[in-house]
Amino acid sequence: MSIIDEVIELKKARRAVILAHNYQRGEVQDIADYVGDSFGLSQKAVDCEAEVIVFCGVDFMAESAAILNPDKIVLNPAPEAGCPMARMITAADVKMLKNKYPGAEVVCYVNSSAEVKAESDVCCTSSNAIKVVNSLKGDEAIFVPDRNLAHYAQKFTSKRIHAWQGYCPTHHLITAGDVLVAKMEHPGAEVIVHPECRPEVVDMADGVFSTDGMIKYAKNTGKDLIIGTESGIIHRLMKENPGIRYYPLSPYAVCPNMKMNSLETVRDSLRYMKTRIVIPENIRTRAKKALDRMLEVGR
To answer: How far apart are alpha carbons 153 and 161 in whole angstroms?
Structure first.
């Protein structure tokens, strides 16, 4: 029996659903029931009727699923897969910011720990950050932890954003020089980038999208695309819209943590029911309020 057959059999026996982020290895995306960005995966975790959720991503994603689904078993096949940006801020840092900017609501990018979410007023993803910021009642917002996403959102709101200085190391590797070289090497191709990229990279792009936004854009353009985000998304782009060419904006835009999941880790997670994510209730209920508010705002 192949590993894929084992996964299918175990999934059925466990009444499980497999969720995978767009940055996962191609073979992991192919065995998933749903592949998407952080927002779509959050929605799917709530809507699915499975008893077990196997979350293929990095640690904060499995945590978010566990926060939203206390009655379901949430498994993280690669618990060692952390998010460097999420680890750039702590709950104590958020408390300090709230004391520094009293009255400002805290907008927390989902790329953060459960403890940080619990200290926040509302979460956001790259696809709805602007909408979330504009939904705030006050004139000021504290935005954690991604300074680049905060900078992007600031362009589309009159509210003053106080940004924490975190960033995604993988997206930060993409430079303005990469954009210039890619445009010269692939004339006629459009450059689309993720808002986690440096501001100067965002300014040079033809379009700025979340990962699911990139998928949708690719379906509606007839032009070849230069992709400015983690390279794992190109697997899904080629699979769902093979009619155009895709070029990575940087060959170095690979998140090693996102690549820690494999067919073997997914199989073993289902076989041995590991590693279960359990969030302390006093943290989970507070973090859930911030995630629920995000889901209410929508994309």
So the answer is: 9
Report, in angstroms and rounded to the nearest whole number, the Rg of the chain calculated over CA atoms.
19
* pLDDT digits 0-9 by tens, 72-123: 999 999 999 999 999 999 999 999 999 999 999 999 999 999 999 999 999 9
Give the burial string for 85-115 (b: 16+ CB within 10 Å, else e).
Answer: bbebbebebbeebbeeeeebbbbbbbbbbbb
What stretches of 8-166 adopt beta strand conformation (E)? 16-21, 34-36, 52-56, 73-75, 105-109, 122-124, 140-144, 160-163
Pairing of strands 52-56, 34-36: unpaired
Is 20 strand, coil or helix? Answer: strand
pLDDT (tens digit per residue) in 137-188: 999 999 999 999 999 999 999 999 999 999 999 999 999 999 999 999 999 9
Alpha-carbon torsion, ordered 91, 93, 98, 101, to 10 deg? -160
Pick from 35, 33, 39: nearest CA to 14: 33
What's the rounded Cα separation, in Å, for the pair 137 and 267? 46
In one letter, which amino acid is 48?
A: C
- Give the span between the Cα atoms of 27 and 31, in whole angstroms: 7
Distance CA 260, CA 199 (A): 29
Q: Which of 285, 277, 286, 291 is nearest to 73 (CA)?
A: 277
Strand order of the sheet with strand 105-109? Answer: 122-124, 105-109, 140-144, 160-163
